[in-house]
Specification:
The N terminus is likely disordered. This protein has a 5-stranded mixed β-barrel with strand order 1-2-3-5-4. The protein is an alpha+beta fold and 135 residues long. Strand 5 and strand 6 form a beta hairpin. It is globular, with a radius of gyration of 18 Å. The chain contains 2 helices and 6 strands; from the N terminus they run αβββαβββ.
């Protein structure tokens, strides 16, 4: 029994370290939600795409038009988004509340999506995602 305890502690440490290092599901290259850059936009969906899990900001993205401007809107991980009875089609007119990030592309990290009487809540007011860490 004495010899098994150190092995058990090593296994437990090996399981916990990657979770702690993940920082709650965002990688260092992922942009951070900034409540100071909150925007409320009415847009038209141009494209819906799924970004592979092996890349930064994997999950569901929308390309939208806000007036003459094209934006990339990050919604969240695929499995999280599939848990809602809410799908998108090209041409949908939606309202997005989120944080606008200045980068190589015009990016918005969505916090809420509204369409007619439906609302999907993706993050809290500080920008913390509602999906589980590591999703």
């Amino acid at each position: 029994m004495i010899f098994r305890l150190p092995i058990l502690l090593l296994i437990l440490a090996a399981l916990l370290v990657p979770r702690a290092a993940s920082g709650g599901g965002t990688s260092p290259q992922d942009p951070k939600y900034d409540p100071a850059t909150t925007v409320d936009l009415t847009v038209v969906v141009v494209e819906i795409r799924e970004v592979a899990r092996s890349t930064a900001m994997h999950g569901i993205h929308l390309t939208v038009e806000a007036g003459r401007e094209s934006l990339d809107v990050y919604l969240g991980p695929v499995e999280f988004m599939k848990s809602f009875d809410f799908s998108f089609s090209k041409g949908d007119r939606i309202q997005i509340l989120g944080s606008r990030i200045k980068s190589a592309t015009n990016l918005v990290l969505a916090r809420e999506i509204h369409r007619q009487s439906q609302t999907v809540y993706l993050r809290d007011s500080s920008g913390a995602p509602y999906w589980p860490p590591g999703s």
